[in-house]
Amino acid sequence: MKILHCSDVHLDSPLSGLGPNAKIRRDEISAGFCELVDYAAREADALIIAGDLFDGASPREKTVRAVADAFGAAKNLRIFWLSGNHDAKGLDKRVIRSLPENVFTFEKQLTYDLGAVSVSGSEAGQRGEFLLDEHKFNVLVLHGDEKSLDFKRLEKLPVDYFAMGHWHAFSRRDFGRGIMCYPGAPEPRGFDETGETGFVLLDTDKKGLDKILHLNRAKRKIVTKTLDITGISSDYELGAAFERLTENVSDRDYLNLI
User: Fold this and answer.
1) Helix, strand or coil for residue 80?
2) Distance CA 35, CA 252 (A)
3) Residue 90: predicted pLDDT
4) φ and ψ of 165, to 5 deg
5) Do 187 and 26 contact (CB within 8 A), yes or no?
6) I need a surface site. Which of 32, 48, 69, 83 has the fewest CB within 10 A?
7) DSSP conformation class of 85
8) CA 196, CA 192: separation in Å to the nearest integer?
9) Would residue 125 be called left, alpha or beta, if left means φ above 0 and alpha means ψ between -120 and 50 degrees?
10) 161-165 vs 78-82, strand pairing mode
11) 152 alpha-carbon distance from chain centroid
């Protein structure tokens, strides 16, 4: 079974640092997420959103409609959506009402049986124990880190893949009997997100780290370049050094210049 795992999209972030370009970037991030759903519908059997799909509890009507339409168009894709610390509990009822039948949340049901695979999730502050069959491939969806989650307890669970959200850079590590993975945000939103962004394509039939493929289909990337100005004594030399350093950087990307 193939599962696309993403998190921390933060639709409708204010992006105030971008000034007049903020609206353009907000719309890009929204369009990028809808394209990601379409990609999941072609390449995977299920989509996991591990929190913070929206940046707040009251997204724009335009954004809600776009997400609902993208979910509805992927009618054969099973979508599991966990709320995060940004879009938790107080989420506008418009969003909940707009969800099609192929979207499942973890507010009332903690575990979903998909045959040889089970998908479980826990909302922030939610109580209840997971009834996991140790003979299945168990996926656990969580939003948080060691400060907000009891990692010692989680490590003892018969979980094969921890689908995490909260950190905006990609990371993975062995955890318990399985792997814990943060996919990172699908799109960077500012220069505080210079880590590796993207999403994960999980193949439950493969072994070890081979089951995880990290992909990046971001519309814009943050490219970090370091310019050594030692010995440069004129604006002309500085400009020429800058041009040489950045000649392969796309005009679409953010340049993080050190």
Assistant:
1) strand
2) 18
3) 45
4) -140, 160
5) no
6) 69
7) S
8) 12
9) left
10) unpaired
11) 24
Amino acid present at 49: I
Residue 198, both tokens: 């993207």
Both structure tokens of 217: 């289909």
Tokens of 2: 């193939």
**In the β-sheet with 117-121, what is the strand arrangement from edge to edge?**
111-114, 117-121, 137-143, 161-165, 178-182, 171-175
Residue 106 CA: distances (Å) to CA of 44, 50, 86, 100: 21, 11, 16, 15
- List the structure tokens of 50: 């591990």
Q: Which residues of the chain have pLDDT under 50?
A: 90
Question: What CA–CA distance (Å, rounded) separates 57 from 55?
Answer: 7
Residues composing the chain: 258
Taking the model in full, what pTM does it have? 0.91
Is there a contact between 211 and 226 (Cβ–Cβ < 8 Å)?
Answer: no
CA 222 to chain centre: 16
